[in-house]
Write a structure and sequence with these properties.
Layout (H helix, E strand, L loop, with lengths): L3 E9 L3 H8 L7 E9 L2 E12 L6 H6 L4 E5 L8 E7 L5 E7 L8 H9 L3 H12 L4 H9 L1
Antiparallel strand pairs: 1-3, 1-4, 2-3, 4-5, 5-6
Length: about 150
């Protein structure tokens, strides 16, 4: 057994019943749940699980199979760094999954920006970065899924 850390998962309130059905018995484990938050007017549910082995939620693959959009944030341990992952469904009903080390989401290397600015390719760098590393906002996510 590895380090046990705290893991936070955020889902749109729109998916709360599907989420709770998918994770089943895990709701009975030690955790905080039902914490409603909001981002850009989108109601979200925040669940906090404590003492999770290496920060890996056993039910995450079930959420992906069921296409339940979510964001997960985990603390670091002695053998791994803190981080976050984001699972979304785009406007074409295709899966988007992004994973970042803590504080690295949306970060572009400064030297790359300076070089791209100097050679006139800054907009291309920004567009490429958004395509590869951008995370669909909760506002857009809910609108895509509502149709």
């Amino acid at each position: 057994m590895g380090d046990r850390v705290t893991v936070k998962i955020i889902i749109p309130t729109l998916f709360q019943s599907e989420f709770e059905a998918a994770i089943g018995d895990c709701l009975e484990d030690e955790k905080d749940f039902g914490n409603q938050i909001s981002e850009c007017g989108v109601p979200l549910e925040c669940y906090v699980f404590h003492e999770i082995d290496e920060g890996i939620l056993e039910f995450e693959s079930d959420l992906k199979t069921l296409k339940i959009p979510h964001s997960i944030f985990w603390d670091g341990g002695s053998g791994f760094e803190a981080g976050e992952s984001h699972f979304r469904i785009n406007s074409n009903n295709e899966v988007q999954w992004r994973k970042f080390g803590a504080g690295k989401a949306g970060v572009i290397d400064f030297i790359e920006v300076v070089k791209a600015n100097a050679d006139g390719s800054l907009q291309k760098l920004l567009n490429d970065h958004e395509e590869s590393y951008g995370v669909i906002s909760w506002f857009d996510q809910v609108n895509f899924l509502k149709g």
